[in-house]
Amino acid sequence: MHLAYPAVLAALLFCTGLYGVLARRNAILVLMSVELMLNAVNLNLVAFDVWLSKAAEETLHSGQALTLFTIAIAAAEIGIGLAIVLAVHRNRGTADIDKLRDTAEGHGTDSETDGSDSDARTAEQAAQSGRAGKAEATA
Amino acid sequence: MTLAEATATAAPATLTRAAAETHGFLSPTGVEIAFLLVGLVTFGAAIVTVTTKQLVHAALWLVVALGGLAVEYLLLTAEFIAWVQVLIYVGSVVVLLLFGLMLTKAPIGRSPDADSANRWAALVVAVAAAAALVWVVVDAFRATWIDLDGPAAGSTEATGASLFQNWVLPFEALSVLLLAALVGAIVLSRKEKPESSSPPVNSRTATGSSPSVPDSRNHPIGRKGAVEATSATGPPAQGTGSAEQEGGAR
Known about the structure:
By secondary structure, chain A is mostly helical. Chain A has helices spanning 4-23, 27-55, 62-92, 109-138.
């Protein structure tokens, strides 16, 4: 098999994932696109490892070992990423990454109002949870 | 005149075709044809994944794309990677993504705001990157041939031997990383109520030794003075004062 086939497919998949990361608004769809990019890299690693294991005499099978490591790290990444997205959704009520611009610069009043709004909301939530804890303790 | 022109234009075409045939791209082997077809399915599923407006359908098309990649690994004789791909990606990662979609109350039907406003800039960037990458990769590896005959390069035996002979330390470090990710995901996704309710309980038990503070809590009118008195006593009592004020904000 020509090495160009898997290499071209990996490049196309990577660029598809790149488009998804840049164009999607939902944070979970962005995570899906990141998975696509990681899988494109895995395909490259496997193809070049199969090529080198026949072309070279002695190899460490580093491509396949690295692919396994990438898969494990991707599993860890998706777990942590989903936990973060769920925490953001619980605090803000949205998983839309276009609305999470508290630390944005140069957007003037938009980010200002967003920031103050979310600050007020988190303060209110803190007060609410403190109140709930106090009610539990007194009961 | 026109016939001569036609033959003049046809001659270079046949020449390039002959040159390409000596390269071998126009006489693909069966494995290459299978790889091409499965690759088309995978690429199409990936395109639908990043462009569909139904969020759950995106996760289900991701299953098709990842399963197609598993078939590509099998065609590249990397069988262990293929089954790991099926187990971890198709089996667990997509299920995690579906759970995430459900828990964030994603809309079931078509959501018109699935794509952001900079979609065209993203499309330009992606197409430019794809053109550059494909051009470079094809130019670099046009004549490189993978020999798929003989013993499989990615059989379970070969992968296991190399993994546990040469890659033991990264393997163990990876297990520690997975444990850390597990603990981190649990800590991140736990409800925060027990953490934030514990400081008032602690401060109350700490100040419960002094009899004046519980008395003042029972009388709402005298609370303000009591709070000021306790906050004036010292830094540990200040936390109690703020907790009382938050409680009184009701």
